[in-house]
Design a protein that fits this description.
mainly alpha; 2 domains; two-stranded antiparallel sheet; about 65% helix; elongated; binds zinc ion
Length: about 100
Amino acid sequence: MTSTELTPCPACGHSVSSAARSCPECGHPIAPPSVQTIEQTSKWHKAVMLTGVLFILAGTVLWVRGCGSGPVALVGWGQWLVIIGILAYGAARVHAWWRHG
Ligand SMILES: [Zn+2]
């Protein structure tokens, strides 16, 4: 008995050993699960951090415009956008630090 797990081929659904580099049925390349998880995690980090930065930028613009001559509601929206952006950015940083030590 080996410890390799069977994983379905993403192209044809044939059960393929996770140690195999490609599907024996159709030749579709099989990515190691660990690499896939790391790629998905880093993509999630980038998406959350990018969203956080965009929220901070948009919130700062609203905040500054509202403080000038704009409606007071804009200041409140701007402050909330900045707070949410900082929280999202911070959560992504903490998550990355937690996973990678
Ligand atoms: Zn296949």
